[in-house]
Fold this protein.
Amino acid sequence: MTLSTNAVGFTLGQKQSEMIETKLKRIAYADDLIVDLLLKIKHEKIFTFGATVNFKWGNSATVTCEEEDFAAGINKLMDMLDLKITKEKEKIQSK
């Protein structure tokens, strides 16, 4: 899985990068299913998190959320991403 992180409106700090790496371990079970993961984090008054996952079978999935706190937002994004990957994996396994 290839990870691409894009920070808009702020500079991603070392602690924030480490937090993202730690949280990505939650979806490590899907490394063999995912070609690449594109994270976009935008900060104006609040943080806007977006993730696009491209799967090996050609499908892609996008999740977005907004949160005032970076840590809470990355947790929320990973919850949504985990759910989306699980649903996509089940859909493909049922075919």
DSSP finds two helices and four strands in the chain. The CA atoms of residues 81 and 87 lie 10 Å apart. The longest helix spans residues 70-94. The first strand starts at residue 2 and ends at 8.
